[in-house]
Amino acid sequence: MNRVRPYLLAIGLLLALAGAIGGYQYLRFAKLAAMDFSPPPVTVDVAAATTEERVSSLSSVGSLKAVRGVNLTAETSGQITSISFDSGQRVEAGQVLLVLNDEVEQAARKRQLATLELASVIFKRDQRLIGQKSISQSQFDTTRADLARAQAELSETEARIRNKRIHAPFGGTVGIRHVDLGDYVEPGDLIASLQDGAELDVDFTLPARFVPQLHPGQPVGIQVDAFPGKTFAAALQAIDSAVDAGTRNILLRARLQQHEGLLPGMFATIRLDLGQKETVVVVPESALTYSLQGDTVYVLEDASGGGLTANARIVKPGDTVEGRIAILSGLKAGERVVTSGQNKLFRGVKVLTGTAP
């Protein structure tokens, strides 16, 4: 009996120790279960969607072009013997820019001048003799034909000589020169671009359904990346006479009324005013997020269990004016949207309004 008693005591101590450990673990896990492991609220900036009265407009894109602009090319082949312009130089209308080798044509011209001179002398003599009836009419007709043929051959050679010279068709600025002295050029080879920047046009397209609302003289606003935030005034100049059967768009042309600093070929964003006022919902431009699913804004809504959450909503954006973008559908006036901190948002997250860090 005395031998059993120490074993019972040890077993009792082990049971007591196991109970204490189990109780400790139970209390620990109970505390963990009672803790809130949900992510903390995200602080974002918000703004309320408001309404604004705007003049209805249509947007498009296009490229600037000079009213007078050409690519200078050769009409005939030959070696360049003279260049009288530099890249970026201002030239006048009719100025000779480039001369091709015309030695053969010049030699032919001298020969034809001599032939013409002789034909003229013979014609004058035979004209006098036919009046005296000293020669036959057939001989005089031959002499007259020889004179006409000599004149035609000289005119043809002089035309070839003119083709060996490239003249500026109008005054303007020459672009980068693509040829050098001694180069051999073929018909159609690019020599340089000549642009008259005094007047600029912009060509763009709009869906054909808007044709009834278009007319020459409508105000057009032009924006280019080179002058961010600045709008250049233009006016609708012409409407094409046919709709493109492939795209169902109509080609339009507007002429800029101010174009200081602009160059032909610049990419332009175009806004054509239709002259009709409409009330639109607007939000700060920073509220709009672009994604593969579409243009999105995060709208503040009540969260389950209290507080606020931000849910993504696909909207249809319109034009941007002074940092405020029109929302054509998907958002109502008075709803609050997130304007910064969108990259920290996810489904079900709770938000706090304030200054986003």
Describe the structure.
With 357 residues, the protein is of the alpha+beta class. The chain has five domains: 1-35; 42-53 and 280-353, conserved putative lor/sdh protein from methanococcus maripaludis s2 fold; 59-66 and 196-276, Elongation Factor Tu (Ef-tu), domain 3 (Beta Barrel), CATH 2.40.30.170; 75-98 and 168-187, no CATH class; 102-163, Orthogonal Bundle (Helix Hairpins), CATH 1.10.287.470. Helix content is 24%, strand content 43%. The protein has a six-stranded mixed beta sheet, with no helix packed on it. A six-stranded antiparallel beta barrel has the order 2-9-12-11-10-13. The model has no long low-confidence stretch (mean pLDDT 87).
Please identify the structural class as seen in this structure. alpha+beta
Briefly note the CATH topology name of the largest domain.
Elongation Factor Tu (Ef-tu), domain 3
**How helix-rich are the residues, as a percent range?**
10-25%
Give the rounded overall mean pLDDT.
Answer: 87
**Mind telling me the C-alpha Rg?**
43 Å
Task: Name the CATH superfamily assignment of the largest domain.
Answer: Efflux pump adaptor protein, beta barrel domain
What's the end-to-end separation, in Å?
76 Å
Name given to the CATH architecture of the largest domain: Beta Barrel
Number of strand elements: 20
Share of residues in strands = 35-45%
Tertiary shape: elongated
Q: Give the SSE string.
A: HEEEEEHHEEEEEEEEEEEEEEE
